[in-house]
């Protein structure tokens, strides 16, 4: 026989009506009455339902309905006078239960009934919850938690049962933590995380993601650190990819990410700043910039920015670092950093990479046009191109060898990652990202809503400079949009709380239809206009500031 606390089956609507009428046997005349021949399990379920309804108060029933996503029951209880903001004896409200259970329909119903979303949790003590749930008050505690001295509970335990208990708890906790991390990586891969912060560079993201995945899952050489060389022009995402990789691996990016500008190590005597001064020299007690930070976090992500500018003696030290996974500082102490990830960036061969990528993109575009003309279905995507192996061996490898002067240094690099110029669709994303940044600033600082037309993004994307990358888009937005916003604000043309739209001058819209490859006579003009409450637009007449180039000086 089923337990009264856990009915075998939930009663039907007719059975519920029978119980409420006071006839548990179902002998009720008229339409809708229960049949005398109803099965015993259904009768037991009906009795259990009546028992629970009598036992539970309206407030407890409201909390239970919020948990099981029963909107109709919630509406009925609220109509009967149940308090929508009632609390469980352990502190939570029905709205909290629905939100944690992800029951959006219940959340909507409770908010409609004026549930207060600003109520605090007001949870009772851990001992009351432990007693209620039948758990020990320390159940689930992290045995790997460190104090200010960096010690875990096991470090303070003596021999005996307590030490064995803590060892077992540490092993169990590490296994659970490893299982959760694997599940998180499976649901939310590294490549997906990187694409949220980096525009374009699909090949670079895929290469880095594959190497990190090998390391995370134990398919790597633990005797050598992971080494990358990022090649490409300035402002194209090399440093940002290194930062986001460090943020993924280490939650605390301040310790887990070490960045060194290698232009500071161009002279031989500056090698001491790298690993520390030898005994008897100034700065011996301070240590080097790299060794000091690696000692704090041996598995950090280390970025050697513009490594091509470093002195050859610094490269010799880096060769030992990449080969043996350890580094000896000026004091003679050895730092083991085989678990670290080293990323070098360089602008070497950036011109050749950019020209080759543009050539590949142009060939892909012509191939797409040809396939479209021939009505072929397998039209090639022009945005996705790959650097050929022949180009890497015949062009890039000789340039790198001539610059770094040693094959053993290049041989220690696990992956050479190529960063390509942005295509048009990626430039549109960059422009939209930059305009969204200034729209948030305008809303936060001046309560101004900033909108823009699709043509505006095309105009600003034309300001892209191959040599400066995304920075050229940033500067173009500042010159052509932010300058107008600042001038209009200074001339008191922007009322607080207004809505602004950035548009292209009507007379210049024809310039946007110019085919690619033909030189435009002039750049289209961008204008600001205020959107009135009746949706009508009014253009702003911004007075041009005084131009120093037009001033005539008399001596």
From TrEMBL:
Signal peptide: none
One GO term describing the cellular component: mitochondrial intermembrane space
Keyword field contains ATP-binding: yes
ANK repeats by residue range: 57-89, 90-122
InterPro entries, A to Z: AAA+_ATPase, Ankyrin_rpt, Ankyrin_rpt-contain_sf, ATPase_AAA_core, Clp_ATPase_C, ClpA/B, ClpA_ClpB, P-loop_NTPase
Any single Pfam family the record assigns to this protein: ClpB_D2-small
Domain Clp ATPase C-terminal residue range list: 422-511
GO molecular function: ATP binding; ATP hydrolysis activity
One GO BP annotation of this record: cellular response to heat
Superkingdom, natural source: Eukaryota
Keyword field: Acetylation, ANK repeat, ATP-binding, Hydrolase, Mitochondrion, Nucleotide-binding, Repeat, Transit peptide
Broad class of where this protein is predominantly found: mitochondrion
Known role: Functions as a regulatory ATPase and participates in secretion/protein trafficking process. Has ATP-dependent protein disaggregase activity and is required to maintain the solubility of key mitochondrial proteins. Involved in mitochondrial-mediated antiviral innate immunity, activates RIG-I-mediated signal transduction and production of IFNB1 and pro-inflammatory cytokine IL6. Plays a role in granulocyte differentiation.
Protein family according to the UniProt entry: Belongs to the ClpA/ClpB family.
PANTHER family tied to this protein: ATP-DEPENDENT CLP PROTEASE, MITOCHONDRIAL DISAGGREGASE
Quaternary structure (record): Homododecamer when substrate-bound; the homododecamer consists of 2 homohexamers stacked head-to-head via ANK repeat-mediated interactions. The active substrate-bound form is likely to exist in a dynamic equilibrium between homohexamers and homododecamers. Homotetradecamer in the unbound state which is remodeled upon substrate binding into the homododecamer. Interacts with PHB and PHB2. Interacts with MAVS; the interaction is enhanced by Sendai virus infection.
UniProt-recorded name of the protein: Mitochondrial disaggregase
Organism whose genome encodes this protein: Ficedula albicollis
């Amino acid at each position: 026989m089923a337990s009264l606390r856990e009915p075998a089956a939930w009663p039907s609507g007719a059975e519920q009506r029978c119980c409420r009428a006071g006839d548990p046997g179902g002998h009720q005349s008229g339409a809708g009455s229960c049949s005398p021949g109803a099965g015993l399990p259904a009768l037991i379920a009906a009795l259990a339902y009546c028992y629970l309804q009598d036992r539970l108060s309206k407030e407890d029933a409201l909390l239970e309905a919020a948990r099981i996503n029963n909107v109709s029951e919630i509406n009925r209880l609220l109509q009967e006078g149940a308090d929508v903001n009632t609390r469980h004896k352990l502190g939570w409200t029905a709205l909290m239960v629905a939100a944690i259970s992800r029951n959006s329909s219940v959340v909507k119903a409770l908010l409609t009934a004026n549930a207060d979303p600003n109520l605090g949790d007001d949870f009772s003590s851990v001992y009351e919850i432990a007693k209620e749930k039948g758990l020990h008050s320390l159940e689930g505690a992290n045995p790997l938690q460190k104090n200010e001295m960096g010690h875990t509970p096991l470090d303070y335990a003596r021999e005996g049962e307590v030490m064995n208990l803590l060892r077992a708890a540490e092993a169990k906790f590490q296994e659970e933590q490893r299982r959760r991390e694997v599940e998180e990586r499976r649901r939310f891969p590294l490549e997906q995380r990187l694409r949220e912060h980096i525009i374009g560079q699909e090949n670079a993201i895929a290469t880095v993601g594959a190497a990190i995945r090998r390391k995370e899952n134990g398919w790597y050489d633990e005797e050598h650190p992971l080494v990358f060389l990022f090649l490409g022009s300035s402002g194209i995402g090399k440093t940002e990819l290194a930062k986001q990789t460090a943020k993924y691996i280490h939650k605390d990016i301040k310790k887990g990410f070490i960045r060194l500008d290698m232009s500071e190590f161009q002279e031989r005597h500056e090698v001491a700043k790298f690993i520390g001064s030898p005994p008897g020299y100034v700065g011996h007690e301070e240590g080097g910039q790299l060794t000091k930070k690696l000692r704090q976090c041996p598995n950090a992500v280390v970025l050697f920015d513009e490594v091509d500018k470093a002195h050859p003696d610094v490269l010799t030290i880096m060769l030992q670092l990449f080969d043996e996974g350890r580094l000896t500082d000026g004091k003679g102490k050895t730092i083991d950093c085989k678990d670290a990830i080293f990323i070098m960036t360089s602008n070497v061969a950036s011109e050749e990479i950019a020209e080759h990528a543009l050539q590949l993109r142009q060939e892909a575009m012509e191939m797409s046009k040809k396939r479209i003309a021939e009505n072929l279905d397998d039209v090639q995507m022009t945005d996705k191109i790959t650097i050929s192996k022949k180009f890497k061996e015949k062009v890039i490898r000789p340039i790198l060898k001539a610059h770094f002067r040693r094959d053993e240094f290049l041989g220690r690099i696990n992956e050479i990652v190529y960063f390509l110029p942005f295509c048009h669709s990626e430039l549109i994303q960059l422009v939209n990202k930059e305009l969204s940044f200034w729209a948030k600033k305008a809303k936060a600082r001046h309560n101004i809503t900033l909108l823009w037309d699709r043509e505006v993004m095309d105009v600003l994307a034309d300001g892209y400079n191959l040599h400066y990358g995304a920075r050229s888009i940033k500067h173009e937005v500042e010159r052509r949009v932010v300058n107008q916003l600042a001038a209009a604000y200074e001339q008191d043309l922007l009322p607080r709380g207004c809505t602004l739209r950035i548009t292209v001058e009507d007379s210049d819209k024809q310039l946007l239809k110019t085919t690619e490859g033909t030189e435009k006579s002039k750049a289209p003009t961008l204008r600001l206009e205020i959107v009135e409450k009746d949706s009508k637009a009014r253009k702003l007449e911004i007075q041009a500031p005084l131009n120093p180039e037009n001033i005539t000086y008399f001596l």
